[in-house]
Amino acid sequence: KQWYQRRVRGLELAEISDMQEKQKRSYLKESGDLRVKEVKKIANAKLKSCAEILQEKEVEHERTMEKLYEKISRLKMQCKTKDDMIQSLSGDSRPVSPNST
Description:
mainly alpha; 88% helix
């Protein structure tokens, strides 16, 4: 009878140990899930921030390109005006080559 009681007690202890292990795994899983959610939240915030920075840089780049195109257009006009002046002063009807300036 004692053997039987020890055996039952051993099984009860094993069952309690199993329950504790399951609770521990469940806690670790939940804790891991919470950590994953937190990491995802941080990653998404960083991604959003990077996207906003990239968008700002693209707008800045477009502005810079517009300014450059405007400057190129002005310089072309200045060159054309100079070429026209040179042509009218020289009395030559041929267009001035771009390499002569």
